[in-house]
Specification:
Elements: E1 2-4, H1 10-27, E2 35-39, E3 42-46, H2 54-72, H3 80-91, H4 108-122, H5 125-136, E4 141-143, E5 147-150, E6 157-160, E7 180-184, H6 189-203, E8 207-211, E9 214-217, E10 220-224, H7 230-238, E11 244-248, H8 251-257, E12 264-269, H9 285-292, E13 299-308, H10 312-317, H11 321-325, E14 331-335, H12 340-348, E15 352-357, E16 360-365, E17 368-374, H13 387-402, H14 407-414, E18 429-433, E19 436-441, H15 446-459, E20 466-470, H16 478-490, E21 495-499, H17 512-523, E22 533-534, H18 537-547, E23 553-557, H19 561-574
Helix pairs in contact: 1-2, 1-4, 2-4, 6-13, 6-14, 15-16, 16-17, 18-19
Length: about 575
C-alpha cells in the first residue's frame, strides 16, 4: 500500500490502475483490482499481490504512480527516476549493490522486465504450494517473516520459512482448525473477548485469547502488554494447548499490519464511534466502519458475522459486504437500545439475533428462542444500568452460539461473570472504600466515557458528589480531546482531576493534553478551582481519593497498564470489595 499526498484526479488513478494491472498480468499474479481510497491528507493506493512477493508489490505500486505522473508532466517530474534510484540505493546501503539493470526505471518495457528479474529473488514456491494445499483442505494458516503455522492451536504445527517441508511431507491428518472468534469495534472489545473466553472454558475448552492487557491461556499470562493486534493473534493460534481462540483485533493493527487470522467461525463488530480520526487515511465514521468490517472476509459460510443493530453505520454498511468481498457470511444482529424493531425485522428474515425483551436477554438461533436470564441479575450489567455491558453480552452470546456453545452454558456464564474482580480487570471494577464508591474503567473515547459516567452518576446518591479523572492519549485530534471534556461536563461532576497519560504521549509534548482539556473546560464554564492537574495517572487517582468522602462516587478511567495495576492494587489494599465488586 502506498500513501501519497500528490493530488490524484480520476485520470491519474486510471493511468496508475492500468499500469498495475499490466504488471500483475506480466508477473502472473491472480487477477484482483487495485484499490484507491482518497482521504483528507491524500490518497491510499493498494494493490493485491502474493504473500511471498510483497516487497516487489511495493516496487510495482510506486512505479505505476511515478510513471503515470511523469507521463502527465515530464518537465515537472524530470528528476523522478533519479530520485527513485537514489532511494533504492539508500535502502540497500547495507546490502550488496544491485546490477545496473535492476535499478528503478520509469520506461514500462524496462520496468516490467526488471520486475520479472526481481520476482525470483523474493518468491517462495514451496510456501505457495503449502498455502494452496492448506486452502484445499480448509485449514487456516498463520504466517510472519520467519514462520508458517498450518492449522491452529492444538491442531497446528509450525515450520521455519527457511526449512519448509514439501507438501507430501506434511502430516495433514494431524492438522485441524479450532473454534475461532474475532472481536473488533470501538468499545467493548476486551470485555467481549473475556466473556467469550469464559463461555469457552465453561464449555470445556482451554481458551486462548489476546487483548489490550496481554495474551492468555485460561488464567495463565503468556505475555503482558497491549497485544490487541496480529502479534497477539499469532501467539494465541500458535499455542499448542489452545482449544478455542478468541482474538481481539484493534483498528490500528488492521490498518498497519493486517489481520493475522486467515479464517474464523465468528467475528463481532461491537460498535463504531468517532476515535483516531486522521490516522492512516481514516477521517470519518464510514471509513472507520469499513476498517472494522474487514473481519467479514474471514468468516466462513457456516459461521456468523455479528453486528450491532443499534449502530447506524453498521446497519448502513452491511448491505455492501457482498459487493466488497464477493460474498457475505451469515449475519447475526444484537441490540439493547432503540432498535428492537429493527432486530425483529432481521429475525423475521432468518438472521440470528440477541436483544432485551421485558427485562430479559433473549437469543434466537436457527429459529429457536432461548432466554439467557434477567438483565438486572447479571453482575456485568450492574443492576441493568450498564447498558453497554448488556450490549457486550448480547454480541458475545451470538458469537458463542456460532462456535457451538449451548445457550444454557452462555446463560450460566452471564449469571456470574463480573462478580469477581478477576473476571474483567480494568473494566468497570467497583470498590467500596469506607462508604465511597470507586469505579475503575478503561473508558478511552467520548462514547466510552459517556457510558462509564452514566453508571457513575446513577450510583451517586442525592447527597453524594461525583468526582472523576480526565485525560487522553496523544494520538488524537484536538477536536477529539475537546469532545472528551464536553462529555465530562454533561454529567456536572463536582471534581475533574485532569491527568497526564504519561505513558501515552504519542508525539505530544508533556503537559500539552492537560492544557487542551483545561482550556476546553474553562470555555465551557467549568470552575477552575474544581479541576486540578496532576502529572501522572496514579497521582491523579490519589488526589481524587483524598478528596472523596462517604457517599461520593469516583469514576477513574485509567489507561496505561502499569498505572491501572498500581491503582487497582492500592484500592484492593484500602477497601473491601462491594457486592458485585467487578462488573
Amino acid at each position: 500500500m502506498l500513501d501519497t499526498a500528490v493530488p490524484t484526479d480520476d485520470a491519474l488513478l486510471d493511468a496508475w490502475r492500468a499500469r498495475v494491472t499490466r504488471a500483475a498480468a506480466r508477473l502472473g499474479w491472480r487477477k484482483r483490482l487495485p484499490v484507491a481510497r482518497r482521504h483528507a491528507g491524500g490518497t491510499l493506493l493498494a494493490i493485491p499481490a502474493p504473500y511471498d512477493e510483497l516487497f516487489l508489490a511495493t516496487e510495482v505500486n510506486e512505479w505505476a504512480l511515478c510513471a503515470a505522473l511523469y507521463e502527465r508532466d515530464p518537465a515537472r517530474w524530470a528528476g523522478l527516476e533519479q530520485a527513485l534510484i537514489a532511494a533504492a540505493l539508500d535502502a540497500a546501503a547495507n546490502s550488496p549493490p544491485s546490477p545496473q539493470d535492476l535499478r528503478p526505471v520509469l520506461d514500462e518495457a524496462a520496468a516490467l522486465a526488471r520486475f520479472e528479474r526481481l520476482a525470483p529473488l523474493e518468491s517462495h514456491p514451496q510456501l505457495r504450494a503449502l498455502l494452496d494445499a492448506a486452502t484445499l483442505r480448509g485449514l487456516p494458516h498463520v504466517i510472519d517473516e520467519s514462520e508458517l503455522t498450518l492449522g491452529s492451536g492444538v491442531g497446528g504445527r509450525s515450520f521455519a520459512l527457511a526449512e519448509l517441508p514439501g507438501v507430501a511431507d506434511v502430516r495433514w491428518r494431524e492438522l485441524h482448525d479450532i473454534p475461532t472468534a474475532i472481536v473488533t469495534g470501538s468499545n467493548g472489545k476486551t470485555t467481549t473477548v473475556r466473556l467469550l473466553a469464559a463461555c469457552a472454558r465453561r464449555h470445556g475448552w482451554r481458551a486462548g485469547y489476546n487483548c489490550t492487557d496481554g495474551v492468555f491461556l485460561d488464567n495463565e499470562v503468556l505475555a503482558a502488554g497491549d497485544y490487541s493486534g496480529p502479534a497477539g493473534a499469532r501467539m494465541v493460534l500458535r499455542e499448542r494447548r489452545t482449544q478455542a481462540a478468541l482474538i481481539e483485533t484493534a483498528r490500528g493493527g488492521i490498518l498497519r499490519r493486517g489481520i493475522a487470522v486467515s479464517q474464523a467461525n465468528a467475528a463481532i463488530v461491537t460498535n463504531v464511534s468517532a476515535d483516531h480520526f486522521g490516522e492512516y487515511g481514516i477521517d470519518d465514521l464510514q471509513g472507520l466502519a469499513d476498517v472494522k468490517l474487514t473481519v467479514a472476509a474471514l468468516v466462513s459460510d457456516r459461521g456468523m458475522l455479528v453486528l450491532n443493530a443499534d449502530d447506524a453505520q453498521l446497519r448502513a454498511r452491511a448491505p455492501d459486504l457482498t459487493r466488497r468481498f464477493e460474498r457475505c457470511p451469515p449475519l447475526g444482529w444484537f441490540a439493547v437500545g432503540g432498535d428492537q424493531h429493527t432486530l425483529r425485522s432481521y429475525a423475521q428474515r432468518g438472521a440470528s439475533t440477541c436483544g432485551v425483551r421485558e427485562g430479559r436477554l433473549h437469543l434466537t438461533h436457527h429459529g429457536a428462542d432461548h432466554e439467557l436470564g434477567l438483565i438486572s441479575s447479571m453482575p456485568l450489567s450492574m443492576g441493568g444500568i450498564a447498558g453497554y455491558n448488556v450490549a457486550n453480552m448480547a454480541g458475545a452470546a451470538l458469537a458463542a452460539v456460532s462456535l457451538g456453545i449451548s445457550p444454557a452454558t452462555i446463560a450460566a456464564v452471564f449469571a456470574s461473570f463480573g462478580s469477581s474482580l478477576l473476571d474483567n480487570p480494568g473494566r468497570m471494577m467497583r470498590f467500596d472504600l469506607h462508604g465511597t464508591t470507586v469505579l475503575v474503567d478503561y473508558a478511552h473515547n467520548p462514547d466510552g466515557l459517556r457510558g462509564f459516567l452514566t453508571v457513575a452518576a446513577h450510583l451517586c446518591s442525592a447527597a453524594g458528589r461525583l468526582g472523576m479523572l480526565l485525560g487522553h492519549a496523544g494520538n488524537r485530534q484536538n477536536a477529539d480531546i475537546a469532545e472528551l471534556a464536553q462529555v465530562a461536563v454533561e454529567f456536572r461532576p463536582d471534581l475533574i482531576v485532569i491527568k497526564e497519560n504519561e505513558a501515552q504521549l504519542r508525539g505530544r509534548e508533556p503537559g500539552e493534553i492537560p492544557r487542551l482539556l483545561r482550556a476546553e473546560l474553562e470555555r465551557l464554564g467549568y470552575p477552575e478551582s474544581n479541576m486540578p492537574v496532576r502529572n501522572t495517572e496514579v497521582e491523579a487517582a490519589l488526589y481524587a481519593l483524598d478528596w472523596a468522602r462517604p457517599g461520593d462516587v469516583l469514576a477513574l478511567p485509567v489507561h496505561s497498564a502499569s498505572a491501572r495495576s498500581a491503582v487497582i492494587a492500592m484500592l484492593a489494599d484500602r477497601s473491601a470489595p462491594a457486592g458485585g465488586a467487578c462488573v
